[in-house]
Amino acid sequence: MSPRRGFRHPGSFGSSLPERGLLLLVLIVLLQGSLLPFGAASSPDVGHRDEADVHAEAEEKHNFTKKPFPVLSFEYKHIQVPFEISLWVLLASLMKLGFHLIPRLPGIVPESCLLILVGLLVGGLIKLAGQKVPPVLDSNLFFFCLLPPIILDAGYFLPIRPFMENLGTILMFAVVGTLWNAFFIGGLLYAVCQIQPNNPSDLHSLELLPCLLFGSIISAVDPVAVLAVFEEIHINELLHILVFGESLLNDAVTVVLYHLFEEYSGVGSVTVIDGVLGVISFFVVALGGVLVGAIYGILAAFTSRFTSHTRVIEPLFVFVYSYMAYLSAEMFHLSGIMALIACGAVMRPYVEANISHKSHTTIKYFLKMWSSVSETLIFIFLGVATVDGQHNWNWTFVTVTVVLCLVARVIGVVGLTYVINKFRIVKLTTKDQFIVAYGGLRGAIAFSLGFLLDKRHFPLRNMFLTAIIIVIFFTVFVQGMTIKPLVDLLAVKKKQEAKRSINEEIHTQFLDHLLTGIEDICGHYGHHHWKDKLNRFNKKYVKKCLIAGERSKEPQLIAFYHKLEMKHAIELVESGGGAKLSSAIPSTVSMQNIQPKKPAPAKPEDRVLPKLSKSREEEIRKILRSNLQKTRQRLRSYNRHTLLADPYEDNFGEFLLKKQKMMALDKKIQDMNNYLTVPAAPPDSPTLCRARLASGRETDFNPTRQQKADTVGPDPQAYSMKPALDSVPTIQVDLASPQSPDSVNILDEFQRSEQAAAAEEGEDDGGLMMKAPTRPHERCNAGEMDAGTREKLSRCLSDPGPHAEDEDEDEPFLP
Amino acid sequence: QQQQQQQQRRHYEELAHKSGFSTEQIKNLHKRFRQLSGNKETISRANLDSIPALANNPIKKQIIDAFFDKRNQRQDDEVGSLEEIGLEQFLMVMSHFRPPAHKSGEEERQAARRQKLRFLFNMHDTDGDGIITLVEYRKELLSKSGAIGHQAAKAIADAAMLEVASTNAPHMAPDDFYEGITFEHFQQILKGLEMESRMHIRFLDVDTTTMRCGKATS
User: Fold this and answer.
1) Is A799 exposed, middle or buried (0-12, 13-18, 19+ CB in 10 A)?
2) Any residues with CB less than 8 A from the CB of A345 and at least 6 apart, and which?
3) How close A423 gets to chain B, by Cα (Å)?
4) Which domain holds residue B10?
5) Separation of alpha carbons A289 and A330, rounded Å
6) Do A461 and A563 have their domain in common?
7) Which superkingdom does the taxonomy of this entry point to (chain B) (predicted)?
């Protein structure tokens, strides 16, 4: 958010005011809307009116013939439930929207705090209107609808490598740390309750087991709260995965402790055998959850192997299988969270290899959308539920709980780190420990668990709930708001945003092999060895079963390279439409600079004609298609079920999507500069342009190109976009690599199809303008891109001659 | 007998001083050394070549070469390769994979990082002229070409080289020639990888089986 505010200069401040006004208006309307339905739903005379309705209906039936047919009727009850759900979702989304529209605010207050405040406000308004607050944070709703999307999002995009590398530490914090917290808080709380002599009776009546139960509820770090806060502070990967991993994996401990204590607090005593059973149950719950998740994950991967003909429903499999994994785990009281995490993490590599690029994007967006709406709703509901709850405020209990939570967390982290550091290579510093301890936020899971408690067994349930809410508020507000300044103050290492370069990928893999080899020479089998074994097994058997076709044999490096290429292609397409991209001007280095100049006698094949590699070919094909599709897509009739069967339509959709992403792209230009690993140069320096052009070394002059350039040239807008074109040289990585004779055919084919495309486009000019009048400059972009492609092709075709500079002067359209 | 033991221990201490390993680690490594060499004083390429676990490693040849590379012996300026190595040389090569020291200052970290990167660099720079050329880079990738296609490997090497060139020398005249990756550029491109903490393996202190905290492999 902050970079975005950076772009917004003071002048535009005024323009955002009406937006906000509008938003406010919508909100007020919405609030009224959401109040009214509740009024209608819960007013005491509802039943009465119902009866009256029934009577009326009955009467209606009697004199059926007399009544005229109702042209317009009103029946709110019919749609009440879905309507109210939609209203809540709308409220959440609008709040999120509004939060980011207000300048400077996101920098100070975390979103979660603000959302809780909104929830409080909404709850208060509902109460003020004299209505009953709906039980929004109902446990079923929470655990079956709101939580899974967030966890799936976290599991599917879990950074496996750092997670696995730090698994020991994470497990230590998650299991031992949570146990310690639960027993420390529960035990001391019980002691405090017993100590005070002049205490009112209700605290004295508290027994040990409810205290421990309360401790186990309150001690678990909450993934939702952690995600919400940590995503905004951009902390380094290690700390993020430590805290976040802990919050995910402690679910198993919480589940077991919760069920154990809930079971026995009715009985009142726990024997040693129960304790042993509890330990066994922990392993069953945790490993069982992982197992269930893994099974569903493999099923999902296997299913996705066969979806190549029905691409539209591909994303659905991911969601449904994951949800079923969650439900199946919950059915056996296993850890649903761990099942979801395992399911997402297991299926991801295989599913990604099987599904189309677009389905992948869909999955990504859907997960992000669901999880962010869920998160927003959870925080709002937390606020609403606070207003709604019957509170039993007990100063001693609340204060002691908050203090104990803090103390237990600090002692736990420091003590455990002391042990862990003996085994770690990269030690956790004091700063790291502080952030880990301070980042232990509590959240809605604790509240929902507290909400589940049975009032008959726990007479002090309301007091528990109050204390839980206070702890949540304390961690989310105080810790959540201060953690960002503290991170800055302590100069904790931040996350590097830079994308991975090819070289880094190459050397990472090289290092993996090297370390495995050295371990083998040393003769002991460390985790590199086992990782290698696992990889080998995966490659040899699992991938063959789960991944369709050729891609199962594709090594990781190639996959990475393809991803990179895909990105390049997309960037190339997008750069056609984005004048802003001109700032991402690449360097003047091209393939010629790194190729050996003269054919070395030892390696004569280095100096043969350039060729298009398969991937390059694919890229060019893509570009051509995205130009062609403009004319083709009109001929196609819309078919809901074969959305992806048609490559042209497919690309058209993609093109539109890219258009929408342009806005986001502008923000990411900085990233992209990194990614292209090229410093930006001033866009219009003639010498630079010349040099760049020279680096292309066109000796072959392409007539179609000139023609095209002439038609495009006069258009001022297209002309100003020229710099964008220059991103071509960096992307052309392997044009100059040696070729085999058959590639000439491909080139010719391209040439032809391209000319055809140009011709077709020329014919269709008017029609296209009529079809999409709202996007006048998209056409120019297409033209631009065409020119870009042509330039590329001409470069491929040309044999780089020795006198490139001389030819420059002939170019009519470049300075 | 006792004198021999004494001598052995002194020998170990000397080695420990040179390589930075502890004497226990050296004892373990020596045991492995004897096992590999068949109780001889030196190890030859054939000895390492016959390690069964290494058979599947795609960069097996480079790894073995690294052991016989004079540049990795920490006696600078010597290029070339040895035919056989003794325990000391073996330990010297191994010492590149020591984990970083417990409490190390910024300078020590930089030094460790430089030294580790130098080891990697030497593995790529096969002819020892201080520059990784495109040909060498391609060859390194092609060594894995059992898995990667020949063409793809080339394309990737080219792309990677171009990336290095444009990072380190963004403005080149068309006639300039980027000869290859120098060590400085090599350091530059791998800046983000935190080599000093990543490039290490666990050397055993005690002779018993490994004692690691539960690392599941799911």
Assistant:
1) exposed
2) A155, A156, A158, A160, A297
3) 8
4) 1-99+199-218
5) 9
6) no
7) Eukaryota
Instruction: Give CA separation, A84 vs A47, A373, A459, in Å.
Output: 20, 15, 33
Size of interface A-B (CB pairs under 8 A): 215
User: DSSP assignment of B133-194, as one string?
Assistant: EHHHHHHHHHTTTTTS-HHHHHHHHHHHHHHHHHHH-----TT----EEEHHHHHHHTGGG-
Cβ-based neighbour number of residue A419 at 10 Å: 12
Around Cβ B41, how many Cβ atoms within 10 Å? 10
pLDDT tens-digit profile of A605-623?
Answer: 333 334 445 555 566 555 5
- A100 by DSSP, 3-state: which? helix
Count of structural domains, chain B: 2
pLDDT of residue A147 exceeding 80, the answer is: yes
Q: How far is the C-alpha of A179 from the C-alpha of A185, rounded, in Å?
A: 10
Residues in chain B: 218
Q: Do A587 and B148 touch (CB under 8 A)?
A: no
Judge if B130 and B95 occupy the same domain. no
- Chain A interface includes B132 (CB < 8 A): no
Q: What's the rounded Cα separation, in Å, for the pair A116 and A98?
A: 14
Interface membership of B212 toward A (CB under 8 Å) = yes
Would you call A691 and B174 a contact, using CB atoms and an 8 Å cutoff? yes
For residue A777, which of A704, A684, A712, A709 has the smallest C-alpha distance?
A712
SS percent in chain B: helix, strand, coil, step 5:
55, 5, 35
- Contact in structure between A727 and A571 (CB atoms under 8 Å): yes
Give the angle subtended at the CA of B183 by the CAs of B178 and B188, to the nearest 5°: 85
Residue A193, pLDDT above cutoff 50 = yes
Tell me how crowded residue B86 is: count the other CB atoms within 10 A of its CB.
15
Least reliable range by pLDDT among A206-215, A314-323, A368-377, B129-138 = B129-138
Work out the minimum CA distance from A169 to partner chain B, whole angstroms.
Answer: 9
A630-659 residue pLDDT tens = 433 333 444 444 444 444 444 444 545 555
Is the pLDDT confidence value at A69 over 80? yes
A478 has pLDDT over 80? yes
Domain end residue (candidates: A445, A461, A490): A490
Q: What is the full DSSP assignment across A509-523?
A: HHHHHHHHHHHHHHT
Does B86 share its domain with B146?
no
Residue A288 — pLDDT band, cuts 50, 70, 90? Answer: very high
Same domain, A486 and A540: no
Mutant choice from A282, A495, A518 vs B, greatest count of B C-beta within 10 A: A518
| Contact predicate A221/A243, CB 8 Å | yes
The predicted complex's ipTM stands at 0.85
3-state SS class at A603: coil
Name the more confident of A602 and A161.
Answer: A161
Q: What is the pLDDT of residues B61-119, one digit of tens each?
A: 778 877 787 777 766 556 667 777 778 788 888 888 877 766 667 777 777 788 888 88
- B188 at interface of A, judged by CB pairs closer than 8 A: no
A514, A523, A676 member nearest B63 (Cβ)? A514
Note whether A588 contacts B149, CB cutoff 8 Å: no
pLDDT at A96: 84
Q: Do A594 and B162 touch (CB under 8 A)?
A: yes
Answer yes or no: is pLDDT of A324 > 90: yes
Nearest CA in chain A to B151: A613
Q: Is position A238 within any domain?
A: yes
Amino acid at A121: L
Same-domain check for residues A157 and A197: yes
Which are the contacts of A208, defined by CB distance < 8 A and separation ≥ 6?
A186, A187, A190
Who contacts A287 (Cβ-Cβ below 8 Å, separation ≥6)? none
**Residue for token pair 């880990």:** A436
Provide the pLDDT for residue A731.
Answer: 38
Average pLDDT, chain A: 68
